[in-house]
Amino acid sequence: MILGVVLSIVAALAQVSGGLLVLQNSHWPKKWERTLLALGAGFLLALVFLELIPTSIKLTDQSEYALLAMLIGFSALHFFEHILAGHMHFGEETHHEYVLARSSVWGAVGGLAVHAFFDGMSICAATQVKPELGMLVFIAVLLHKIPEGLTVASILKAGEHSHQTSLRASLALPLATLAGALIVLVFVSINLHVIGFLFAFSAGSSVYVGACDLIPEINKSRGRSAPVVVFLGMLLFWLGAHLVSTFSGL
Description:
By secondary structure, the chain is mainly alpha-helical.
């Protein structure tokens, strides 16, 4: 139980570091950001299809309801990002005519906050099922936390918000990550069986993050290096899962 919270805190700190990098320095390695996104996308999608979905079905022992929970998780993230928070995706800060509109700025931040909330929920839910799996989810989340922090800070900076406002918004996303983790802890204390469906819900939301947010942004990059890194991320997951399984004796 404590491990999930600790990992969520580390992921939140990574997000803060990404935001501070932008706020303290106007020039950051954009190529590194795109590479991290590509690596994280491949790792996350491999994680979902090879671990999260099979494990959630096994845990709930009710495949039809588990799949329904995944669909709800996918739909929930789409609803919050594109209906409540407005249309946004990673890299939106490059379109300055969009970003400079105040409503669009906070809509984008709201969408990223939703990302952060489900990240925390996914880490904690996976950890409750199996610590080794929680570590794999943590790595997948960590790989896109720094780019996420870079994104929210650069959005606010492009919108000509004050340094203090940008800093507060950058800190709000890590708090959303911790809130997601605490939600899982509350459910676990009420009914352990519920964690299986929360896990399936997290799998659905993770599919959305990888396929609908990260991959489209990566596909905008020039050249073939970023798309190739996506496959390296998948390979990295496979190797990592194999090593974890070997050393844990599973």
